[in-house]
Amino acid sequence: MEGKSFTNFTEFKEFIKKHEEEQHVLFVTSGSKKLINGHPAKESIQYEWLKLVCKQGRATKPTSSKGIRPNQRSWKHDCGAVIRAVIRHSDVTGYQFVITKAILSHENHPTDHLTALVYPENRRIKPDETVDLMVGTKIPQSELRQITRRNRTNVFLERMWKTTGEN
What we know:
Blueprint: E1 5-6, H1 9-23, E2 27-34, E3 47-54, E4 82-90, E5 94-103, H2 113-118, H3 120-123, H4 129-135, H5 141-164
């Protein structure tokens, strides 16, 4: 993966998304620096550099909590998987977004499809047109919430059944 280059940021995002789906992992942005306004590649690449880490990466932050709210959970398991990409320029190819560092070994957590389904980002439903249409009407918000919850549960169950083969 190191050395792979992309002509625009959309290509890069699609590549990462495909990798996440194939490997049943999720990368989140850990740090970035946007290109300055007026940069020739601002429209296509957007970033000077971008660092993605595993959703379960980074150790949990130490707190000064007194234990008033016990049993707080975190997705963090100190996984070391990281992807770093930077903008590069050459006279032949022009500006490109290049992956300069890729550590893809996921430690301290499972990488199976059922675990990936539980990530909050994967549980989100796509905007439902019927709910969008109902928002403009005078239907009480409590009823809209119930409809949305029902749809969200159904979508999650359908995804789970599809991957496990159950009905």
